[in-house]
DNA sequence: TTGAAAGCGCTAACAA
DNA sequence: TTGTTAGCGCTTTCAA
């Protein structure tokens, strides 16, 4: 009942119960505890029960780091994306998290914010963690030095028994050990452009997307191929690269509207660029789709909230995330070796909503 | 020059370079390598260089699991949210990731999909990982059994030297060792309701949010307080709880419109519910804000894309995520003990856009 | 300034 | 069915 004396133990770092503690309480060896918990080895029912009681009474959970060190896997996958809050990446991340979870894995997430140096550094951080797979998402720079450095990391990961999964980004070159899940980026752009042309549009403004960036290159390739297929000449003035992002769409569209550039439809590099474009058009008193048609890419939820509802290209983002994990963990599920295919391409298709009208 | 013979070593698990390999190549002891790499101890310049060369030539990265086992921290924080792709959670997650990154931590993310059993299990999974902090985000059930179980985990985490940070959810009770970052949920709802009343609205429909849920309770409390402050009687028919989410907003609004319930404004429990409500109203030929006013909560980007642009309550989501990490890591930054405050409340305020009109 | 060696908590032979 | 023990790769005394 007296006040407890202040001991010198003020700085002992708190520490959790260990398997040895459980063993002691249960009156068995640590090996038995390990087996009882893993359940992969015969343990007497009575023993198992004693162990379980000890576990409960000590509030014991195994130390995953020790487990990873002793065992073969960390039960973790890593995912590197641009931005956690960007819906394009968030939906892929959702797929990754869900599939990882289904496969008994936890998910280490990191954002580059578009910095490729950082991207390289993050792969190394994940390598330190010994994740079962590292999933790299989104468009990539075509800078050769960068590609070389990333290829080196792919090889390192491979040598470590992990794997680099490229999700929605181009190959690092033949011979570089990666897996990949791609989507038909070019095909979606082709289909959309062709649709616009079928609606009578001839002068279509393509706007957004960083140049020297794989995603931009693919979408533009589909765009140009559709033009060519219909015998429409490319006009450099109608291709306005720059960035993904609402501000770019808004600002660049404003600038263009201040010129006398002639166009009847706008193909925004993605839905959020389209939102910016739409606002610029609105402010100029131009009605969509009556005065100008507008389309986007990605089919993120926002596309359906815009007014008019945005016609866009659907990309199965969540599926891509799931497949990336499946591919990355393929060597774990079976007893190694029999990995099926290393690359997978999912389809895209256009979603027709209300933002396109035949050219009058 | 001959073909390499196929050895029996077909099934050796690939394994990365270790600190011992580096030591061997550099011709020093592992302790020296450790010190050279950590940089926290004097090492001869020449030695350091030899080590760095060895590291580079072996493509060595330290094993974070071994490091965590030997050292004191895993340099990891865990975050548990409802859904990775839900913007409310995604923005908080962005703040968490950014602050964690700034503090040299990696971020383990997991989604409950609204399942509280799973939430409990996920906390345990994070406990196994020995994360420096676990951040639990979003509204919580008020079920006593659930609260008790979570409180037990908070205590376990605390005993382990980690910490449970409650982010945007109510306390687990006095004496339960947690930290928390809250936002003025009630105040935001009060301010918004008062604004609606000031615009002449008397019959305001509150729609959405699961019942028996802390977030709903707070928002409703603010709503009712504002009503009371202006001497307006509560009408149970005007409070329609159910769920967060666009489908609920749409469906319930449709149902209500089929009745003769009288109201001139709708307060949606959050922005995405508002999007659903807006669609239902539109389809009914009701114009917002001319025929009925509509407001939301959270101020996610979508609110600004709706037409009319949605008047809503701004919640500093990213800040909350950052603060949660700061709080959780507070004991690490200083030499333990001198942790400042354990709870932080950030403010909310209304953002007036175009979806409210004075009642005519 | 460097090395030797004792753990950190767990798994997985190997024995019994 | 259970116990003993040798690592897993690193950090950190303790000595030199």
In words, what does this structure look like?
The structure is a homodimer of 360-residue chains. By secondary structure, chain A is α/β, with parallel strands linked by helices. The first copy, chain A, folds into three domains: 6-69, 434 Repressor (Amino-terminal Domain) (Orthogonal Bundle); 76-183 and 317-346, Rossmann fold; 185-315, 3-Layer(aba) Sandwich (Rossmann fold), CATH 3.40.50.2300. Helices cover 45% and strands 14% of the residues of chain A. The first copy, chain A, has helices at 19-26, 30-38, 45-58, 64-70, 87-102, 116-129, 144-160, 185-198, 214-229, 246-257, 271-283, 302-305, 317-333, and strands at 76-81, 106-111, 133-137, 164-167, 178-183, 204-207, 239-240, 265-268, 293-295, 312-314, 343-346, 349-351. In chain A, the strands form three sheets. A six-stranded parallel beta sheet of chain A has the order 2-1-3-4-5-11, sandwiched between helices. A four-stranded parallel beta sheet of chain A has the order 7-6-8-9, sandwiched between helices. Chain A has a two-stranded antiparallel ribbon with strand order 10-12. In chain A, helix 5 (87-102) packs parallel to helix 13 (317-333) and helix 10 packs parallel to helix 11. The longest helix of chain A is centred in the middle third of the chain and has 17 residues, at 144-160. The model of chain A is unreliable at 1-11 and 335-339 (pLDDT under 50). Chain A binds a DNA duplex (16 and 16 nucleotides) through helix 2 and helix 4.
